[in-house]
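Minutes, project check-in
Item: structure for the 209-residue chain
Input as provided by the requester:
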Amino acid sequence: MDRNEFVQPSVTTRIFEKSLLTKSDFERLIETADIEDAIRALQETTYKEEISKLSAAQNYEEALDNMLLDFYKKMYEMTREDLVVDLLALKYYYHNLKVVLKEYILGEDLEYLYYKLENFPRDEIKKSIDTGASVEYSDVVREAMEEYEKGKNPQDIDIFIDKKYFEHLKKIAKESKVELFDKYVRNLIDFTNIATVLRCKRQDRTIDF
């Protein structure tokens, strides 16, 4: 990876950072009395354009999601190395894989749970479950279905896909040959494992689980 290719994207990212919510913005949001007050506070920030489109204050997550997706779209457009952005965006792709499978198993429309990532082949992946066609992420979905069929426990899907997500992250970090990325992924996995152990202990899970 040629770091010189990231000089301009780095400068642009610094400019984007100036539009992020400040400490005082968060303090003001914390002190708001209700959701309507919080929305009014957000209207005085970089979120104002998306907030103004909301039909009701209770739909605030639509504005937050749109801002998130717009940000990642800009990041992908400005860099020649997608894997740098993938390190942070990949969790949304794997979240979508879980939704695809839950839609398939439950036979329900879970459109509201998806992150609308432009390059996520949702329809192709859904079709591949029945057809066996090979598309991006189809192998992960098929293997997750095999895990689910063993015990019909939806939680097995989440556990399996989470593992695949971290394996994918490790692969990206290795391919980048950037020590910072490798350290980030290893730390993320370690902290996730610690949180998982504590959660299992609180739930009185067995050591086998």
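Outcome recorded: The chain is about 70% helix and 0% strand.
No further action items on this chain.
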